[in-house]
Specification:
3 domains; 472 residues; alpha/beta; Rossmann fold
C-alpha cells in the first residue's frame, strides 16, 4: 500500500457505513480502508426493510460502482474516490483513495483474539496497518463507544463519525425566541413605523443592529410591564417588521378549550394556528404541553376551521424497555399502544364544550374526535402524499436526518407538519442530540419563511412532574 504520508488513513467500522452510506465521500483528501469483516457484516444485514438494511444495500451499490472495471492491481493500489460523478452526492470534492483488505494482515496485538468477535478483527487489522506504516496516522472510525474504548486501551487512535453532526454543542441549537434588552425601543425605535391591517393585526418596522441576527417567525419579547411579545414577519438590510402575537392566555381566546400558561406556549399556539406557516417544530421536556397544544390546534382547524381534512399522527416505535413482541390487528390497531399520549390528551380535549357526566355522551364525543384523526406507522410512509392534512410527528428526536427528510417530503398541497420531541430522551442507538433528525430539521428550517420553532422550557403538567424533570 503506497500512500502519501501527509494523508490520514481512516479504517471504517460497519456501523458507520450502515449509519451513512455516503460517508465514503465525506473524508475529503484522506484515504479509507475497509476490512474484509466489514464487508461480511454488511452482507449479513442487507436483507430486510429496516433503514439499516437499506443503508447496507446502498453502501454495497456505492462500492460496486467504485470497483467497476477496476483490476486487482488497481484495487490493491487504492481506488480513487473521485472516479465517480459525485456532483449528485454529498461530499463532492473528495480526492482520497479507498483500500480493501485484499490479504489478511498479520497483527502483533496481544490479548485480543480476532477470530472470536468481528470487533476484535477490526482492531487487529487497524493495529496491523499502524505497524505497517508507523509514520502515517491511522484512525479507526466507529460509532460503537465500546469499540472506541477498547481501541484506546490498546493504544489505537479511535474517533466517532462526526460528519453527520448538525452542531458541535446541542446548547447552540436555535431556540426560536430572543429576549430583547431593556433599552430596545431607544436603540431600535427612533425611526419606527407602526400600522394595522384590515383584520386588526398590529405591525412595527424597526431598525437597529439586533435585526441582522433575527430569523423570520422568531419570537422576540421584553420582560417588563409592557408584556411586549412579537413575531418577526420579514427582514431586510434596513431592518425588520414585527407583528404583535395573539394572546391565547385568556378563556375567550382559547384554542379548543386550551389556554396558554406561559410565553412559549402562547407563541406555540400562534404559529400552530397560522395558515402561512407550513412546518413547526416544538422542542421541550415532558410536561411542557407540546402534544396537547398541537392536538388542540389541529382539532380547531380541522373541525371548526375546515382548513384540513384530517389529523395524521405518527411516531417512531422505539420501546422504552424490552420489546413486547408482535402486535395483532390492522396498522392503526398495531399503533394504538404507541399512541398513549394521543389518547390521554384526547380524553382532556373531549371535555371541551361537553359538561355532561353521561358516559354515553362522553364516548360519542371521543368517537367524533377520533373520526378526524388517523394513526399511521412510519414503516408505510415511503411513497405516500398527504394533501390538506395536519400531520403530527411525535417523538421526532428518535428519527435520523434521512428519516425526517423522507417524512417531511410526504406533505402535499395544503398540509402542515408539526414535529414534537425532547432531545434529552433519545432511544435510537447511535443517535445523539447533535445528530438527531429533529435537531437537523430545526437547524435547516430556521431561515425558511414558512417554518417556525420554539423551545419550551417550563413544564405545566404538575408540580410532581416538574420536580421529577429537574431532580431525577
Amino acid at each position: 500500500m503506497n500512500r502519501s504520508l501527509d494523508k490520514k488513513l481512516f479504517v471504517l467500522d460497519t456501523n458507520v457505513l450502515m449509519h451513512d452510506p455516503a460517508c465514503l465521500f465525506r473524508f475529503q483528501e484522506h484515504d479509507l480502508f475497509i476490512p474484509m469483516v466489514v464487508l461480511e457484516e454488511l452482507d449479513q444485514v442487507k436483507k430486510g426493510l429496516s433503514d439499516i438494511s437499506r443503508n447496507a444495500r446502498q453502501t454495497s451499490r456505492f462500492l460496486d460502482e467504485l470497483i467497476h472495471q477496476i483490476s486487482l492491481d488497481g484495487i490493491q493500489a487504492g481506488i480513487p474516490l473521485n472516479r465517480l460523478d459525485t456532483s449528485s452526492r454529498p461530499g463532492d470534492g473528495c480526492s482520497g483513495r479507498l483500500y480493501f483488505e485484499v490479504n489478511r494482515l498479520a497483527s502483533t496485538l496481544q490479548g485480543v483474539d480476532a477470530k472470536i468477535l468481528p470487533d476484535n478483527s477490526i482492531l487487529a487489522t487497524t493495529q496491523a496497518l499502524v505497524e505497517q506504516q508507523p509514520e502515517a496516522p491511522v484512525v479507526l472510525v466507529s460509532k460503537d463507544i465500546n469499540l472506541r474504548i477498547k481501541a484506546s486501551v490498546l493504544g489505537i487512535i479511535a474517533e466517532d463519525y462526526h460528519n453527520d453532526q448538525v452542531l458541535e454543542d446541542i446548547n447552540l441549537l436555535y431556540s426560536g425566541s430572543q429576549l430583547l434588552p431593556d433599552d430596545f425601543w431607544n436603540t431600535h425605535g427612533r425611526s419606527m413605523d407602526s400600522w394595522k391591517d384590515s383584520i386588526g393585526r398590529t405591525f412595527y418596522r424597526v431598525k437597529g443592529p439586533l435585526t441582522a441576527r433575527w430569523f423570520i417567525n422568531q419570537l422576540v419579547y421584553l420582560e417588563d410591564d409592557s408584556g411586549f411579545e412579537a413575531i418577526v414577519r420579514c427582514k431586510d438590510s434596513d431592518g425588520a417588521v414585527l407583528e404583535l402575537i395573539h394572546d391565547f392566555r385568556t378563556p375567550q381566546h382559547s384554542v379548543w378549550g386550551v389556554q396558554a400558561r406561559n410565553r412559549e406556549q402562547n407563541f406555540a399556539l400562534n404559529v400552530l394556528m397560522d395558515p402561512n406557516i407550513d412546518f413547526v417544530t416544538l422542542l421541550g421536556t415532558a410536561g411542557t404541553g407540546k402534544t396537547l397544544l398541537t392536538l388542540a390546534s389541529g382539532l380547531m382547524q380541522t373541525h371548526e376551521g375546515k382548513h384540513y381534512r384530517e389529523i395524521v399522527m405518527t411516531r417512531e416505535t422505539v420501546p422504552l424497555g424490552e420489546d413486547i413482541g408482535f402486535l395483532p390487528g390492522t396498522e392503526e390497531e398495531k399503533m394504538n399502544p404507541w399512541m398513549g399520549a394521543l389518547f390521554d390528551n384526547l380524553e382532556l380535549l373531549g371535555g371541551y364544550g361537553n359538561t355532561s357526566n353521561n358516559h354515553w355522551e362522553r364516548g360519542a364525543t371521543q368517537q367524533l374526535l377520533m373520526s378526524k384523526i388517523t394513526v399511521r406507522s412510519l414503516n408505510f410512509m415511503r411513497g405516500r402524499t398527504f394533501n390538506n392534512r395536519f400531520i403530527i410527528l411525535d417523538e421526532a428526536q428518535n428519527l435520523t436526518s434521512k428519516q425526517i427528510k423522507t417524512l417531511i417530503t410526504r406533505a402535499g398541497p395544503g398540509s402542515k407538519i408539526v414535529c414534537l420531541g425532547d432531545i434529552a430522551q433519545i432511544d435510537t442507538p447511535y443517535l445523539t442530540g447533535t445528530t438527531s433528525g429533529l435537531t437537523y430539521a430545526v437547524d435547516r428550517f430556521k431561515s425558511w419563511p414558512h417554518a417556525a420553532h420554539i423551545s419550551m422550557r417550563r413544564g405545566e403538567r404538575s408540580r410532581l412532574a416538574d420536580f421529577a424533570a429537574e431532580a431525577l
